Amino acid sequence: xxxxxxxxxxxxxxxxxxxxxxxxxxDFSRQVALMAIINRTPDSFxxxxxxxxxxxxxxxxxxxxxxxxxxxxxxxxxxxxxxxxSADEESERVVPVIAAVAAASDVIISVDTFLPEVxxxxxxxxxxxxxxxxxxxxxxxxxxxxxxxxxxxxxxxxAAPRTAYPRPRYDHVVTEVAAFLSSRVELAMSLGVPADxxxxxxxxxxxxxTLHTLEITRRFNEIAALGFPxxxxxxxxxxxxxxxxxxKDERLEGSIASGVICILGGARVLRMHxxxxxxxAIRMTEAVLGWREPAYLKHxxxxxNEPAHPVQPADV
Length: 316
What we know:
Elements: E1 18-21, E2 24-27, E3 33-39, H1 54-66, E4 71-75, H2 87-104, E5 108-112, H3 116-125, E6 129-132, H4 140-148, E7 151-155, H5 173-190, E8 198-201, H6 210-218, H7 220-224, E9 230-232, H8 238-244, H9 252-264, E10 267-272, H10 275-288
Parallel strand pairs: 3-4, 3-10, 4-5, 5-6, 6-7, 7-8, 9-10
Antiparallel strand pairs: 1-2
Helix pairs in contact: 1-2, 2-3, 3-4, 6-8, 9-10
């Protein structure tokens, strides 16, 4: 925008601002990508299985696109502790959704998985990104990404996949999370993943208590300072519920506030359940930052301001 010379908030520079996801290109120096969450699981954290059926998962994905999502994240296995799912079973859940969404839209598609076999099948079906919430617990997944040209999201977590990690402790949570992400980025690059195909995620609430997650949110700029587009997955999480004493269906405002704080700290992907509300919050934040023009200009642009609602003549 005219007159905008420097960002009014601290936005750490990106090593590679422009990323290409199949047919879509995003300049993360001037845009925040909104990632919608589609869980094809019978026991998902937020919706309790509402999108477990194939038709429901596809419909929810396309509805999210219509509501403003730039990206849909499709998962077949929750992060929470529980029984393992075979690669075949997980693929049966996610691959048909990916294929259907890719055929109907150019939206960015990620699959939430830590299994290399599922990653390879998902990419073949049309996924652009592998979202590994276990931080390369199986490094072979990075090799799959490198060979395919897809992106990878590297997330901080401590537990082995689908296992509990009681009472996680950190001496300096932000420093330790940043160091973990830096080391896993180096591992991914050593396995052939280009730097411009890497996104990082500090893992809000993943093996962290509420105080840990609040500190990561407050100091998000230290995560973004690693130089890679950073993802904030804050939506409806327990740190919001515990902070505000709210159940999962009451956490929208806390989720929006947390997401905007992360954006101002350098987050460039926001993972959210409530897509329409999150889209408005993100686009408003982009406009304040000078990255987006208002949809229209009318207020105080003429001789007089028209009333928001025309005054109706009084009943006689």
